[in-house]
From TrEMBL:
It comes from Trypanosoma rangeli. Residues 62-74 have a biased composition (Gly residues). Residues 50-77 are annotated as: Disordered. This is Uncharacterized protein. Residues 1-27 form the signal peptide. It comes from the Eukaryota. Keywords: Signal.
Amino acid sequence: MPAGSMLPSSRHALFYLVILFIALLWSREPATPITRHIGKKKCNKNKGIMGCTSTKEKRSGGFRGGDESGGAGAGEFSSLAKENPVAATLKEEWSDFVRSLSVSAFSEARREVWANTASSPLTHRSVDKVGKLFLVYVRNDLTLREWGGNFDYTVVGLANQGFLRATATVDAGGGTGQSKEAVWEVKVHYHSTTKPQ
């Protein structure tokens, strides 16, 4: 190439393409995590708090039900809790937490329990479905109570067992103007099978 030429060499062109590709990847939003945020808190003020990620669902006031992610999922979780021991345990633990938070200045609850699954092991996939439906159930419960909060779940599966860990940070102040924040975590262990159910 002549010394006075303005055309970039193929090495420079490749360099610019790589830089553009990296910039494009960098600017894309990450995959959707399984974390939800409800209430009046602003995540940009609370960086690092569970649920302050790029995806948030904010709701205030009563739930209008009927849409796919709302009322139907909460009802499905309640039905599932009648059949699935992990769902039943989660629902019971959540109800105990909410009841205690309603009557006292409850600040933190961490429990580890076993669901009664020894006679009928579950698949990790079915427990993951329980976790997804539980998020909808909790979201609706907090909305109906006019509470705010952040919540998520994790499923960890091993060969013969696994656990679902559900966590929540709840602001039960509601319309009172006073913050009544509490942390809840439950780890529900279960027996598992590799066979699909």
